[in-house]
Structures are given as C-alpha cells and as structure tokens.
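Below is just one:
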Amino acid sequence: MLTNNLFKILEHFSRKEMTYFLEFIQSPYFNKHDQVINLVSYLSEIYPKFDEVTCSKSRLWKEIFKKGKQDASKLSLVFTYTNRLMDKFLAFQMLEENQETLDLWTIRHLRRKKLFNPCQKKISKLEEAVEDKTLRDSQYLQFSNSPGRRVRPCNCRTGENCPRIPILKTNKPIWNNTSSQKK
C-alpha cells in the first residue's frame, strides 16, 4: 500500500497541509464519497506515521468501510478517488498562492458569460496590481502579453508591431480582440 502515490505525496506534507487536505476532502462541493473522507481522516490521525502496520490493506479496510469482507477493487477505487482529489487540492493550493492567475481565470470566466462590466472592472484592478509590482516576473509577462492587448511600434527588423512590447493601459476593451490589430 505504501507504494501508492497518495502516500508518496502525503509524506511531504506539513501538518498544516494535511489539515487543509482533510478540510478539502470533507467539502461536499469537491467530494461526495464517505469512504474517501474515512480514509483521509484516518491518514490525518496517524500522520506522519505511515508504515506497514498502520497502512496495511486490512487496517485501511477496517478504517474505511468499518465492516464487511475485504475487497481489493473497492479499496483501489477509494484510492483512485482520493488521488484525483489530491491533484485538485494541489492545484488549488498553487492557485491560492498566485492571485494574478486567479484574477485572469476569473476574467476569462466573466468574458465567457458575457459579463463585460464586471470583467472590465476586474481588468482595471488587475492592471493596477500588475503595474504596482516592482518585480517583473512570469505573471507580469503572462498578463501583459495576454490576448487583446495592443502593442506599441517597435524598431525590430520587420518594422511591424512587436508583441514583445505591450501597452498595459488601453482604452480598448479586452474582449474586442481582433486578429489583425493596426497601429
């Protein structure tokens, strides 16, 4: 059992991350399986002591299903669901650390729903936040080169507008993106 990816990831969790993962698993929005909650609750109780005794198939079966005959396929299914939720949890943890990416995804969703006024407000706030950053990191480049941004002329060999030099402040709404933008 200890060779399962779930244990490999959980071994590197801090106590705080383990608690957050348990809370994530207990959310009815993300998880509808009581057996998954039972598994992660048990793993949270024994954390960080994952060994052959505490994580044997028979012990996990008793903790997850409480009764009944041991069935490897049911146990495997619970681990599959838990691993999928682990992937979502890790993605949400990264997203929570990166406000600009979260804002960009919110803008994309608002555009998809054709909610242009809230979208434009969010874009303005994001532009201000990006401009206020002193460090020009990958999030700055991702936002500044996102679709719909106008670019200023560049002195490169082609003589055309160069996408490497973005204009962040624009009067043109971002959703009026055209494939061939003129100067």
Remarks:
- DSSP finds eight helices and two strands in the chain.
- The longest strand covers residues 161-166.
- The first helix runs from residue 5 to 10.
- Residues 150-183 have pLDDT under 50 and may be disordered.
